[in-house]
Amino acid sequence: MNRDGELAAPLSQGAVKAASTLRMAGNIGFWLQLVFGVLAAVLLLLAAAGLTAAGDTKTIQGAGFSLFCATGGILALIISLIFFFRYRKIAQLIQYGDPAIRPHKKSTLQAIKLGLVANLLGMLLAILGAESFVGVLWQKLSSLPQGTTIYNTSQLPQPNEILLVLANTHTIFCHFIGIVIALLLLDRLNK
């Protein structure tokens, strides 16, 4: 019986497995990416606020591209979350939906591939953001004179600058989770 109490066409064993796999992967991916994504977004906001409050114009100018990429990575993560939520809905449609509107295997695989592309793009942006800001930090550290005592600690990397790198690495981890789950889904559903 479906949710409306009507008799539905019996599901094949493959459809039942596909629905449970999609539901489980959707739940795991959604919640893991949500928790770590919120952490990455909070770190990014703290880093951006700290960079502008610090007023070091040299660091802020170098951080612009990194902030842009990190923000793009977070936006791609939001898109990925939407796809993981969609996987759960697809599972419900397969299991309880009207046979006339059940999603086909081809459209389900297409949705997973689009989610995978969102994660790959987000990971690329986060890697570019982390790499560019590590370059800014390297430039800052390499300009310090070797073998002398530093009295002006503003020349050293500040905690808010490290937060930006940490926000990018958390975003990379979130997208890695999404990529792994999407690849597992593609493998399971193509059998």
UniProtKB/TrEMBL annotation:
Keywords: Membrane, Transmembrane, Transmembrane helix. The chain crosses the membrane at residues 30-51, 63-85, 114-138, 162-186. The keyword Transmembrane helix applies. The keyword Nucleotide-binding does not apply. Pfam families: DUF3611. InterPro entries: DUF3611. This is DUF3611 family protein.
